[in-house]
Design a protein that fits this description.
Number of helices: 24
Helix content: 25-40%
Largest sheet: 8 strands, mixed
Function: Catalyzes the dehydration of 6-phospho-D-gluconate to 2-dehydro-3-deoxy-6-phospho-D-gluconate.
Distance between the termini: 47 Å
Strand content: 5-15%
Pfam family, one: ILV_EDD_C
Radius of gyration: 24 Å
InterPro entries: 6-phosphgluc_deHydtase, Dihydro-acid_dehy_C, DiOHA_6PGluconate_deHydtase_CS, ILV_EDD_C, ILV_EDD_N, IlvD/EDD_N
Structural class: alpha/beta
Protein name: Phosphogluconate dehydratase
Strand order of the largest sheet: 7-8-12-11-10-9-13-14
Number of strands: 14
Shape: globular
Cofactor: [4Fe-4S] cluster
Length: about 625
């Protein structure tokens, strides 16, 4: 027998306390947001009120749906798609719109592609200039989503996106139309190729010069080999775990592989669920009411319980702000002390997300967290039956989509465990604070004997400088690598994923190594202790600008501290280093307004939200 989520104990005190803290802090913003959504609802279902010329323009691109759209009685679903075939994860969306239109008609509705949003691949831009556009592409996606839905010819929306900035951007834009019911539609991970640890080993061998470019390219292509999301548990797959915990997917939709009957039926169910929760149904479920403080807390909890991507310490606060909610790193830190680590998925273990799914996947984790009183089971979801449905597994039985209870035991307890026997009693994140500012560290992938690093600093302004020093043998010692001027205002806060192989090599050689930066690390990064998102950033006066080569830096994830061990009087008297000139090329100059307007990482590093006063 499977444990019943319905018999879960009362909410854990730590979870209740953090939720109350967020609710209290968010009262003014949340009240203003809900008032706006009520005004939008009262004026927003106005397709029949549009002028005839307006409607003619809206319907001119469709044929078979025109008569049904014209009478204005059926829901018209706006499809916002992040399709392109440069992202393997999004290449699967190629034929989704035409299929979704058929499924909408089956449900008595209609559907149109409302618009497309940009979707860049961080895997392609890692280490290069285009990566400096990556974080701010999230704001561009949010604004493109708003443009797509601004025609006011839709009574619901389906949001097609999976990867790093795309899901947060879609949600941030869609939440400004939160009076509409909406569903997130994932595409699923590619099937497993070369194991992630083997790929990482080849990367490290290449960094040491032991293998050549052809061997590295062969390994990378063997790992990233087909359509679907990359199979490591990085930001993209953490997105999918959070959407399950927020109740915005059809239950269990996260990790079904593309081009399978199960994936097709999950997408059909998503489309056909929208009319059932629409404005003229008896079960109206608008997005803005689904995404409340409890749903945001659920997203944070599953992120911690699965050792998810550190990028969401930026993205989740930004998503929350779009709904009038404020969550900060202190909330994550408090939750992390109460939420056990239930999974070991690469980079926190050897299994990929396909192995995770086979062992129980998101439904197993959600069921167990509900059993432990560590999720809000009363959130409003898009699912018929409520949040407990997200603790059941979808499958095809007699050609139909059904959901079944999971076994009590994990399918593989080296990958996912029950609430009674976690990998660790705490989640994967800690806050670090001291005279260098406030940073985050992901400890779930780092061996505990490396949670404390004290070593001389070597200071850099770019990833390329670090790689050059590594190749010259200048870092073959205990060292804290400091990479500054990587924050949102300086250069868009790129991920510094290219540093993972050389730092990993240094650690493998027996040196005590850490990274301290005001930039980001990839959601796939692990192994080496990294103090990231350091705020305030170096540009504009952050204390990271005072660090000099040779300063002793102490990173202590046990105590939650990060400090330059420099005499206080000397530290106070030190001048900041000169700020580098602003870069151009690769379109970066077009994003200067976002650099200048971005707020700090803990608030979401968003110029758009800051300018909107959110």
């Amino acid at each position: 027998m499977s444990p019943s989520p319905a018999s879960a104990p009362a909410l854990a005190p730590a979870l209740a306390a953090v939720t109350d803290r967020i609710i209290e802090r968010s009262k003014p913003g949340r009240a203003a947001y809900l008032a706006l959504m009520r005004r939008e609802r009262d004026s927003g279902f106005d397709r029949p009120k549009l002028g005839c010329a307006n409607l003619a323009h809206a319907y001119a691109g469709t044929d078979e749906q025109r008569d049904r759209m014209r009478d204005g009685k059926a829901m018209n679903i706006g499809i916002v798609t992040a399709y392109n075939d440069m992202l393997s994860a999004h290449a699967t969306y190629y034929r989704y719109p035409e299929q979704m239109k058929v499924w909408a008609i089956e449900a008595g509705a209609t559907a149109q592609v409302a618009g497309g949003v940009p979707a860049m691949c961080d895997g392609v831009t890692q280490g290069y200039q285009g990566m400096e556009l990556s974080l701010f592409s999230r704001d561009a996606i949010a604004m493109a989503t708003a443009i797509a839905l601004s025609h006011r010819t839709f009574e619901g929306a389906a949001l097609l996106g999976i990867c790093d900035k795309i899901v947060p951007g879609l949600l941030m834009g869609a939440l400004r139309f939160g009076h509409l019911p909406m569903v997130m539609v994932p595409g699923g991970p590619m099937r497993s190729g070369l194991a992630n640890k083997e790929k990482a080993a080849v990367r490290e061998a290449y960094a040491e010069g032991k293998v050549g470019r052809e061997a590295l390219l062969d390994a990378e292509i063997s790992a990233y080999h087909g359509k679907g999301t990359c199979t490591f548990y990085g930001t993209a797959n953490s997105n999918q775990m959070m959407m399950e915990a927020m109740g915005l997917h059809v239950p269990g939709a996260a990790f079904a592989n593309p081009q399978t009957k199960l994936r097709q039926e999950l997408t059909r169910a998503a489309v056909q669920r929208l009319p059932q929760i629409g404005w003229n149904s008896d079960d109206y479920r608008p997005l803005g009411e689904c995404v409340d403080e409890r749903a945001i807390v659920n997203a944070a909890v599953v992120l911690l319980a699965t050792g998810g991507s550190t990028n969401h310490l930026i993205h989740l606060p930004a998503i929350a702000r779009a709904a009038g909610i404020i969550i900060d790193w202190e909330d994550f830190d408090r939750l992390s002390k109460a939420v056990p680590l239930l999974t070991h998925v690469y980079p926190n273990g050897s299994a990929d997300v396909n192995g995770f799914e086979d062992a129980g996947g998101p439904p197993f984790v959600i069921r167990e967290l509900l059993r432990g009183g560590l999720l809000h089971g009363d959130i409003l979801t898009i699912a018929d039956g409520g949040f407990t449905e997200y603790g059941r597994k979808p499958m095809i039985e007699d050609e139909k989509l059904v959901w079944q209870d999971l076994p009590a035991a994990s399918g593989d307890d080296t990958i996912v465990r029950t609430i009674d026997a976690p990998f660790s009693p705490e989640g994967g994140f800690r806050i670090l604070q001291g005279n260098l500012g406030r940073a985050c560290i992901k400890v779930s992938a780092v061996e505990q004997d490396r949670w404390i690093i004290e070593a001389p600093a070597r200071v850099f302004a770019t990833q390329a400088e670090v790689q050059t020093a590594f190749q010259a043998g200048e870092l073959d010692r205990d060292v804290v690598v400091v990479v500054r001027f990587q924050g949102p205002r300086a250069n868009g806060m790129p991920e510094l994923h290219k540093l993972t192989p050389p730092l990993g090599v240094l650690q493998n050689r027996g040196f005590r190594v850490a990274l301290v930066t005001d930039g980001r690390m990839s959601g796939a990064s692990g192994k080496v202790p990294c103090a990231i998102h350091l705020s305030p950033e170096a540009l504009g006066g952050g204390p990271l600008g005072k660090v000099r080569d040779g300063d002793i830096i102490r990173l202590d994830a046990e105590a939650g501290t990060l400090a330059a061990l420099v005499d206080a009087a000397e530290w106070e008297a030190r001048e900041l280093v000169e700020e580098p000139p602003r870069a151009d090329g690769t379109g970066r100059e077009l994003f200067n307004m976002m650099n200048f307007g971005a707020d700090e990482a803990e608030k979401g590093a968003s110029a758009m939200l800051a300018a909107a006063g959110l």
